[in-house]
Specification:
The chain is mainly beta.
Length: about 220
């Protein structure tokens, strides 16, 4: 979260400073895009139950390059993407492979999740009509910069004590993620989707799960 706040400040500072340059119409062509979505985790093993809503967030600064005088443009930028998987399990390692141990029904808990954060480079090909309808098809690739798991509930060892346990030791995660994106909307409000072509874990070192992200995009700047 701290990295996300820093990035927001950098993007807004960049936009503010360069929008004052009268020689380059940055204010018109540089924008901030905020995605709020839920991840649908695919190929989940039968013993893992995920929540219906797995909240996530992206924030990108993107520069838009119009293609001559047409309604088409090309955009590229940078930003941060955060994905969460809430489940009835806790991640662990056996024989150098990451496994998920199910939390017993007798244990009361409020939250158990893994969270991953990526530094992303997104690109988009955009069509924007005179009626402000936008259709954008693109692709993004990212590098893993943060990972952690968090558990909040009764001690799983049976002591019946309320605990909050956070660890950064999630092993065997893929460091690179990539996949296509799609965005359709009107004005600054859009519906968006991302389909991950990469798995969350290294092959044969963890469950071969991957997210499909569906949500809304706000592009007020």
């Amino acid at each position: 979260m701290k990295k996300l706040l820093i990035l927001i400040c950098v993007i807004f500072l960049f936009s503010s400073v360069y929008s004052q340059d009268k020689k380059v119409n940055i204010k018109k062509n540089f924008g901030v895009k905020i995605d709020m979505f839920s991840d649908i985790w695919m190929d989940i093993p039968d013993d893992i139950n995920t929540k219906t809503i797995n909240r996530g967030c992206d924030i990108y600064g993107m520069y838009n390059y119009p293609i001559k005088k047409s309604n088409f443009s090309f955009a590229i930028g940078f930003g941060i993407g955060i994905h969460n998987m809430y489940s009835n399990t806790i991640a662990g390692v056996i024989n150098d492979s990451t496994i998920f141990g199910e939390i017993p029904d007798s244990i009361s808990y409020k939250k158990s999740k893994i969270s991953v954060t990526y530094f992303d480079i997104p690109i988009e090909f955009r069509l924007k009509t005179k009626g402000k309808l936008t259709i954008a098809a693109g692709f993004k690739a990212g590098y893993l910069i943060n990972k952690h798991s968090k558990y909040k509930g009764k001690d799983t060892e049976g002591s019946n004590i309320d605990i909050i346990q956070k660890t950064n030791d999630i092993r065997n995660l893929e460091t690179i993620r990539f996949g296509p994106t799609l965005r359709v909307g009107y004005g600054w409000f859009n519906l968006s989707a991302y389909y991950s072509l990469s798995k969350l874990f290294v092959k044969d070192k963890g469950p071969e799960i991957y997210p499909i992200s569906v949500g809304i995009t706000l592009a007020p700047f």
